[in-house]
Amino acid sequence: MPEPEPLVAARRVALQARPGEQVEAYVARSRETEVSVLRGDVEALTVAEQFGIGVRVLVDGRQGYASAGSLDPDSLDDTLAEARDNARFSAPDPWQGLPTREEATAVAPPRLDLWRDDLEAVPTTAKVDLALALERATSGADARIRGVESASYHDAAVQGAVASSLGVEAEARRTACSCSVAALAGDGDETRTGYGFSVGRTTGDLDLDAAAADAAERATRLLGATQPPSQQLPVVLDPLVTSSLLGIVGAALSGEAVLKGRSMFAGRVGEAVAAPLVTLVDDPTTEDARGASTHDGEGVPTRRTVLVAEGELRGFLHNVYTGRRAGEATTGSAVRGLGSPPGVGARALALTPGARDPEAIIASLPAGLYVQAVSGLHSGTSPVSGDFSVGAVGLMIRDGAFAEPVREVTVASTLQRILLDVAEVGADLTWLPGSAAGATVLVSEMQLSGA
Amino acid sequence: MLDPDICARTLGVALRSGGDFAEVFAEDRSSSSARFDDGRVEDVVSGRRRGAGVRVVRGESTGYAHTADLSEQGLHDVAAAAAAAARGTPGETRVVALDRRPAPRPHPVTIRPESVDKARKVELLERADAAARARGDAISQVSAGYADGSRRILVANSDGLLVEDEQVRTRLSVSCVATGDTGLRTGTESPGRTVGFELFDEFAPEQVAATAADRALTMLRARPAPSGRLPVVLRRGAGGVLFHEACGHGLEADLVDRDASVFRGQVGERVASPKVTLVDDGTYAREWGTYAIDDEGAPARRTTLIEDGVLTDFMWDRLRAEKEHRGSTGNGRRETYQHLPMVRMTNTYVLAGEDDPDDIIADTPYGLYCVALGGGQVDPATGDFVFGVTEAYLIENGRVTEPVRAAQLIGNGPEVLRRIDAVGNDFDTWAGTCGKNGQGVPVSSGQPTLRVAELTVGGTARA
Lengths: 451, 463
What we know:
The structure holds two protein chains of two kinds.
Chain A: H1 6-14, E1 21-38, E2 41-59, E3 62-68, H2 73-87, H3 101-105, H4 117-121, H5 124-139, E4 145-164, E5 169-185, E6 192-200, H6 208-220, E7 231-237, H7 239-252, H8 255-259, E8 280-282, E9 305-309, E10 312-313, H9 320-326, E11 334-335, E12 343-344, E13 349-351, H10 358-363, E14 367-375, H11 377-380, E15 387-398, E16 401-414, H12 415-420, E17 422-425, E18 430-431, E19 437-438, E20 441-449
Parallel strand pairs in A: 7-14
Antiparallel strand pairs in A: 1-2, 1-4, 2-3, 4-5, 5-6, 7-20, 8-9, 8-13, 9-10, 11-12, 14-15, 15-16, 16-20, 17-20, 18-19
Chain B: H1 4-14, E1 21-37, E2 40-58, E3 61-67, H2 72-85, E4 99-101, H3 118-133, E5 139-157, E6 161-180, E7 183-189, E8 192-193, H4 199-202, H5 205-220, E9 226-234, H6 240-248, H7 253-257, E10 278-281, E11 302-307, E12 310-311, H8 318-323, E13 332-333, E14 342-343, E15 347-350, H9 357-362, E16 366-379, E17 384-396, E18 399-404, E19 407-412, H10 413-418, E20 420-423, E21 428-436, E22 439-447, E23 450-458, E24 461-462
């Protein structure tokens, strides 16, 4: 049975709104391929086409929500009926409601080219060959690589549509593919791991050699790592680490977190929350950003939002609900999955890059720690309190160059302090998976805990 | 959920191109949740996901395809796609005869969640909110969430197995923010069980809310955590996360097989203090990681992983067990029908020892006492792991004194297991979600109060 186009299915549900009721349907459809290889052979190959629908019903400011993983007519009817029933049990909220046409057309949607027809034409065997080539390239990158823990390829072609009874409609589609590899370096007595990846919109964008070289270098340069003594020192964050850190900062810049008193930035607009060289912008209209999108999860066009300008907090991200409640407008920042109503979040955060490349930043440091990767981001950090304590591996910096590798350490500060202690942002802005771009960042002081 | 004849014919299609093994996994999942936040019932949400996946194993390779279309044609289409993914060449349809087997129930579900009116679920949250706010004026925000889910699964495979199970889980989660001179602090408590609405006979919403609120209030007067190596005492329950990370993942046979575990080749060797006995047991009544059968149809069971400090076995799924010509331990799990199964933990527990928990603290001149943990992460290939503490206190001169702020603890699994020098005679468990390769599954960890002689604490204050 052929499934309907997402917008057709969404519209079909939205049109069933009764008088006094607002109905919104969000429909997603994706085609995915996932390949993992091990020791020169395919370990697993998954092909799938998935559908899903999420329905929001609002009656007198009461919101109900239901979702299903199928678009057959019975499923659509059941989902709408469930959402209606759920709305009876929530409390009325005067700001709650779907975007009006005015809110959805206040800015024009950006023109973005996020879809590549040729990805669908790539045969599965070519995707398998890609993963196998990545594994081979990683194994052969360095004599000290003793194995590859995993090498994989993934792609997705995703179409989404929103339609509401207020007449708001939006469609978006994108393709994405990625390959990643985890290398094992060392002999039986010592093992170090390193991760490498490459992302793009179609297979031609992927740089296997760079991913392999990255994984091999990150694993081998940690060989011989030891635990240094506890100390305070300047810390240089790898672009991957910066991206993760910005993801947490982004959570604290969500209008929902701010309005509900769950953000360290609440009530601080206009204050200096970061060093003057810090400018932080969320711009989902950036084509290269992995989170780029023409519309947000409520069908409102995305736009550029300046959050921190030269260290000063300028504002927050909003969806329609938080925008109305804050007395501001939506910033087109509704984010959603299928399972729950839209929230608020960043899609494409980036620091304004500085002038120097990472090598020059490191060369300027008499001593410090280069943090290559962190662990425990979700257990040791909080966008509410600003607590920040994470496990780290990396290299000591001495006299402007990498020195001995370190492991079994944590680096700690607070997110508030880290933003104020940013001493330099590198010129190496890179878009990475997730909601934030990476760049090398020098933090003037953090506490390293070790021996 | 699916007609046995349709399953058998689908398996036939899956093996038409050859292959050593084929499996149909069907799932029907219903969930219901409600969130009370910012002083009001914000959302009531329902979800339904139905679908099936077909797996074809050929040598070392697995082909997988899945669909939400449970018609016979839909299943045959994914069977053909899985067979093609396993790189077979078209041939004769094989006939598979299925033998339906009963799945043993670990325990009954007394009050089915869907039989409970949504108004009663919402009312629980109102009670939690009121109880949390009553703990003190400094409680500035409360979010309370209720969630239940029923997951029916069916597994049919080319060995002739046909088995079905239903897993019902219910959870309450309360998160509080306390505001004071030191800024915002948080406290969370979220008990969950593989049971229905009877969860609330065991956990009154008021009590759960009070625990979360008191945790946030305590953190308001917390000072920065110490930095450096010191003795760490983990209170019963919460600290089980340490074992989940320090060795649980490293004892999963798929990681061992890919040479990504520090415990590879160490069965029969001493890997931990003689005080440590560790089991993974999916049969514990009511626990968060419990089930009758795993997502490959194998019965859950108790596997002793470490006995008196000696490594006795790993955890196995079907694929890895076949390779070693042994049986699965019932640890083959998947998040949904859209995922391939892999080796996962269930309820992973350190068994109670002989030390008095009070004595463990009294015997510690200086150290950290951890009461609540926020989760962790491990690199199984190196054994280096972290876990975050969300409620912790200093131990000074054998007494628990001041609270300290949240911090990460870091250690190396094999080293930390050897450094456990006291194991209490108490015990408790903790419900969580374990993530591996992008799949999250419900697990519990458990342990008695115990002490690690030395562990690196990642605070900001010099010890």
